[in-house]
From TrEMBL:
InterPro entries: Aldolase_TIM, ThiamineP_synth_sf, ThiamineP_synth_TenI, TMP_synthase. It is an enzyme of class 2 (transferase). This is Thiamine-phosphate synthase. It comes from Reichenbachiella agarivorans. It comes from the Bacteria.
Amino acid sequence: MISRLHYISQETDGKSHVQNIEEACKAGVDWVQLRIKNKTDDEILEIATLAKEVCKKYKAKLIINDHVHIAKKVKANGVHLGLTDMHPKEAREILGDRPIIGATANTWEDVERLAMEQIDYIGLGPFRETDTKSNLSPVLGLKGISAILNQMIIHDIFMPIIAIGGIQTEDVFDLQLSGCHGVAIASLINYADNKKETVNDIKYCLPDAEF
Ligand code: TZP
Ligand code: MG
């Protein structure tokens, strides 16, 4: 089952990925994407190993962004691959049948192409502008995301869509109503004054969430 709330890790002022992951798990997330930019493979492996321990403790799934070999090494639950990362076919060959593979889409053409692959979900965005990611693809908004979801229905494509990019609590209800399976969120949770309250507010807008 693909969770409806995908938490994405960040380093924040004074807090490491691992500290923020533990706080997010305590706040009630059960799906963690470890997203590290600008560190060496050795550093990422070390952080991923610690993240795996934390996720195990809280029974949360751990998905590694970009780094398929590190995901395999730490026995993560899966990987998330961007448009310029390893092809999902190659990742599936390396990881085998069971691990979760998610991939990013920005356009209907991306979705159509990815739907042919042996993947488990698509991260669709950016929903709106965000400082969290550099080299952002064109912003889709609710209109763009809804249009792509409608195309999927017309073409009989079934694939969980996780909206991403600048998502605020008040967007979550509209996104799930438009047919998104769930949302992927970084800064809203990582910079929240009260993470538990923020995570609860997000989950409240998603179907069948447990509190
Ligand atoms: N991919 C598209 S937007 C984005 C990623 C990784 C950043 C999401 O972070 P935030 O802080 O929720 O906008
Ligand atoms: Mg990537």
